[in-house]
Amino acid sequence: MKKVFPMLIAVFLLSALILTACGGGGEQTTSQRPAVPAEYAGKTNPLGSDAAAAGKTIYEERCASCHGPNGAGDGPAAAGLDPKPAHLNEVVGTAGDDYLFWRIAEGGSMAPFNSSMPAQKGILTDEQIWQVVTYIKTFK
Questions:
Q1: For residues 65-100, b (16+ Cβ closer than 10 Å) or e, as one string?
Q2: In 10 A of CB 119, how many CB atoms?
Q3: N or C: which end of the chain has fewer CB within 10 A?
Q4: 51-140 belongs to which CATH class?
């Protein structure tokens, strides 16, 4: 028994070290996110919470297939994507309006995201993008 206990402690510590080293491959934390480009920096959502209903309709049509019905990045189209879609529940709690608007408008083809998320600028109006921002903020 005296030889088993130190071995169990060693296995536990090694496992903890590996799990710590492999942490979060999802959306970037606030400190890891790139700066919002000047064109979008400082934008604030001009819409009230009543815009969430319209945002939900747009989200369901244009976003849910990848991001999932609740923003968890688990939509049916997400299975074959690399990188995986952002887990919006994590993003909306730390990202500003300007960041969210920028990411929806410009999509994910640029570094450091390099994702297949399509740009919505030119497809959705600014008001529709703000509606989506309002809706996804309900995910927090």
A1: ebbbeebbbebeeeeeeeebbbbbbbbbeebbbbbb
A2: 15
A3: N
A4: mainly alpha
